[in-house]
Design goal:
This protein is mainly alpha-helical. Helices cover 59% and strands 0% of the residues. The protein has helices spanning 2-14, 18-23, 40-53, 61-70, 77-85. α3 packs across α5. It starts with a helix and ends with a helix.
């Protein structure tokens, strides 16, 4: 299974053209558990918290996640629910 996922990831990366890479859009929609930002609903639930608590790193998904984890007690209930949903 892990080998299949690795091969799929390699295939997806190799199929990205330079114009797609600049767009930062995958060639086809990825499932929510593979997208760094989650579903559109997840984004709506956490966007206000990202602006309020993590504005300085808002352009970096990994740093926003770390910021959310460090400031979990300050997160809104909907955003906390998103983190719990993904086990973060």
């Amino acid at each position: 299974m892990a080998r299949s996922l690795l091969l799929l990831a390699i295939l997806m990366v190799s199929s990205i053209t330079p114009s797609q890479a600049q767009n930062n859009n995958p060639p086809f929609p990825l499932p929510p558990f593979l997208t760094p930002r989650g579903t559109p609903e997840d984004q709506r639930n956490c966007r206000p918290d990202a602006i309020r608590l993590c504005k300085e790193v808002a352009d970096n998904d990994d740093q926003v996640l770390r910021c959310f984890q460090a400031r979990r007690a300050e997160l809104s209930a909907p955003c906390r629910g998103v983190l719990e949903k993904y086990g973060k």
